[in-house]
Design a protein that fits this description.
By secondary structure, the protein is of the alpha+beta class. 18% of the residues lie in helices and 20% in strands. It is globular and about 30 Å long. The protein binds FE2/S2 (inorganic) cluster.
Length: 105
């Protein structure tokens, strides 16, 4: 399945992501800009912030309580904000779109 990462300049980065992989690691492995993943996917750094496209928000689902607390500390959270190390690929999410916050560049 594929993920479409859209950076703040509206450039689309389309990446094939194996099922079960998280969207932070997939971005790093494929050179998608602005996803840093400083904590290695432990939900502890919030440098993998993305805005899930509202059309996909329901399928992607809400953040866990720990993740929601991390999101509250960001300077630019939106209703569909997620830490993408906590989003795991599945066939259901094929074609999912996430936007990358300008503040993370
Ligand atoms: Fe650190 Fe996602 S990589 S919170």
């Amino acid at each position: 399945p594929t993920v479409v990462y859209i950076d703040h300049e509206e450039t689309e980065h389309v990446v094939d992501v194996p099922n079960g992989d998280n969207l932070m690691q997939a971005a790093l492995d494929n050179g998608v800009p602005s996803i840093l993943g400083d904590c290695g996917g432990a939900c502890a750094c919030a440098t993998c912030h993305v805005f899930v496209d509202p059309a996909w928000a329901e399928k992607v689902g809400p953040p866990s309580e720990t993740e929601a607390e991390m999101l509250e500390g960001l300077i630019d959270p939106e209703p569909t904000s997620r830490l993408c190390c906590q989003i795991f690929m599945s066939d259901e999410l094929d074609g999912v779109k996430v936007r990358l916050p300008e503040s993370q560049f």
